[in-house]
């Protein structure tokens, strides 16, 4: 909207996303904006300007001539670069907007150089190191992980990915008539396996101390150890889903391209990388939007002590909400 803030009957509420997060479309628009790799090009001065606009607006100070669109652009830029809880500027490679360009290069390498042992080790190590940077940069909340947990998660995911990749490669070499496409799909299997290790390890405290559950008004009603059993599989599915188009469809497409007369082996790396970049640009925000950030669970599915506590409240809710994480 080009309307000036001074002419708004009701000022925008930037404490919530611009789009309705109860719909898949709204969540998708939100993640397309925050994961936009063009946000990485913003200079430090532009980021500081966006930060000042957001902070001042929350305190009731703003330029009356500023338009609604300009306010939301500043908020989007702020969300893409600053930690949502500490307000500190995040390391550039750990930001959501770095996901597509970084994963494009890493995945392109994994899918191109998947046969020789040194290449497999190098690219899976690079991939899990990048994941560790993302996890460390975005660590937050009541279950903020210590460095030891992050390190163990990193080691577990790296070992799991390498074990899976090397085992499948070994089995395929034994299977002399194995289709070449199966070998191209080994990196996807390794990534899916690593995610199944990494995310639960990173969030292991949630299973013992629980995560906050809230009513529709945002009031915390207690901590549930049942909710993580719903939240963590959703995150794992989202992460694996992001990899499906570029790590499954990509190799299938390249397999067909490699049969064409004009194709040469030297084209594999750039073609695979470009395919990955194109698919990740869509799969990253779409898969982040698969499940609501504030997911819901019926009270009768919670642990009995928490159920009893909630049911004794005045006007007890039938449904509560929790932050599933990313």
UniProtKB/TrEMBL annotation:
<comment type="similarity">
    <text>Belongs to the sideroflexin family.</text>
</comment>
<keyword id="KW-0029">Amino-acid transport</keyword>
<keyword id="KW-0496">Mitochondrion</keyword>
<feature type="transmembrane region" description="Helical">
    <location>
        <begin position="269"/>
        <end position="291"/>
    </location>
</feature>
<feature type="transmembrane region" description="Helical">
    <location>
        <begin position="151"/>
        <end position="172"/>
    </location>
</feature>
<dbReference type="GO" id="GO:0015075">
    <property type="term" value="F:monoatomic ion transmembrane transporter activity"/>
</dbReference>
<keyword id="KW-0812">Transmembrane</keyword>
<dbReference type="Pfam" id="PF03820">
    <property type="entry name" value="SFXNs"/>
</dbReference>
<dbReference type="GO" id="GO:0005743">
    <property type="term" value="C:mitochondrial inner membrane"/>
</dbReference>
<keyword id="KW-0813">Transport</keyword>
<feature type="transmembrane region" description="Helical">
    <location>
        <begin position="181"/>
        <end position="199"/>
    </location>
</feature>
<keyword id="KW-0472">Membrane</keyword>
<keyword id="KW-1133">Transmembrane helix</keyword>
<dbReference type="InterPro" id="IPR004686">
    <property type="entry name" value="Mtc"/>
</dbReference>
<protein>
    <recommendedName>
        <fullName>Sidoreflexin</fullName>
    </recommendedName>
</protein>
<dbReference type="GO" id="GO:0140300">
    <property type="term" value="P:serine import into mitochondrion"/>
</dbReference>
């Amino acid at each position: 909207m080009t309307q000036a803030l001074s002419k708004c009957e009701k000022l925008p509420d930037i404490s919530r996303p611009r789009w309705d997060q109860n719909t898949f479309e709204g969540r998708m628009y939100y993640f397309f904006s925050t994961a936009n790799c063009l946000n990485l090009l913003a200079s430090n001065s532009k980021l500081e300007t966006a930060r000042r606009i957001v902070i001042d607006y929350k305190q009731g100070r703003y330029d009356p001539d500023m338009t609604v669109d300009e306010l939301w652009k500043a908020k989007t830029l702020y969300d893409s670069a600053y930690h949502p809880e500490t307000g500190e500027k995040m390391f550039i490679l750990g930001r959501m907007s770095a996901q597509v360009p970084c994963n494009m290069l890493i995945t392109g390498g994994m899918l191109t150089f998947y046969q020789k042992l040194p290449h497999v080790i190098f690219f899976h190590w690079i991939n899990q190191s990048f994941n560790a940077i993302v996890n460390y940069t975005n660590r937050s909340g009541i279950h903020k992980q210590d460095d030891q947990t992050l390190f163990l998660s990193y080691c577990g995911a790296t070992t799991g990915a390498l074990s899976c990749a090397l085992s499948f490669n070994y089995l395929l070499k034994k299977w002399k008539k194995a289709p070449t496409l199966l070998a191209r799909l080994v990196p996807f299997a390794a990534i899916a396996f690593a995610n199944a290790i990494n995310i639960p390890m990173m969030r292991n405290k949630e299973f013992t101390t629980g995560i906050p559950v809230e009513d529709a008004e945002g009031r915390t009603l207690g901590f549930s150890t049942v909710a993580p059993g719903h939240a963590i599989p959703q995150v794992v599915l989202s992460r694996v889903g992001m990899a499906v188009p570029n790590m499954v469809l990509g190799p299938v497409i390249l397999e067909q391209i490699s049969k064409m007369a004009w194709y040469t082996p030297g084209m594999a790396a750039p073609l695979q990388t470009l395919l990955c970049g194109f698919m990740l640009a869509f799969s990253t925000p779409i898969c982040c939007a698969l499940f609501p950030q504030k997911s819901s669970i019926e009270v009768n599915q919670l642990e009995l002590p928490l159920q009893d506590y909630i049911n004794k409240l005045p006007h007890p809710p039938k449904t509560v909400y929790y932050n599933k994480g990313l």
